[in-house]
Write a structure and sequence with these properties.
The structure is a single chain. By secondary structure, this protein is α+β, with helices and mostly antiparallel strands. It contains one helix and four strands; from the N terminus they run E-E-E-E-H. It has a four-stranded antiparallel β-sheet with strand order 2-1-4-3, with no helix packed on it. A hairpin with a 4-residue loop joins strand 1 and strand 2. The longest helix has 25 residues. The N and C termini lie far apart (52 Å).
Length: 83
């Protein structure tokens, strides 16, 4: 069992962070002592700033395209075809 940081929110809207095991679903709110439930964390995603695309996906497409173009060029030189 790993201990990680989770956000918890109570009925009064207080949000607090706690180091807890991943199975922990509720803790006592440090401000009002009510039950605070664990919140779903937003996913971490790194997007390319101009297009909003995922850089790893765009980089993979560029690498695959360069590889495909190199194969086409090689096949054309060797066999006269674009396959």
């Amino acid at each position: 069992m790993s201990i990680r940081v989770f956000d918890f929110r109570c009925a009064n809207g207080h949000v607090s962070e706690h180091f807890e095991e991943s199975e922990t679903r509720a803790v006592q709110c440090p401000r009002c002592d009510q039950l605070a439930l664990r919140q779903v964390a937003a996913p971490r995603a790194k997007l390319e700033p101009f297009t909003g695309a995922f850089p790893s996906a765009a980089d993979k497409w560029v690498r695959d395209r360069e590889s495909h173009m190199a194969r086409e060029s090689h096949n054309q030189d060797e066999h006269g075809t674009y396959k």
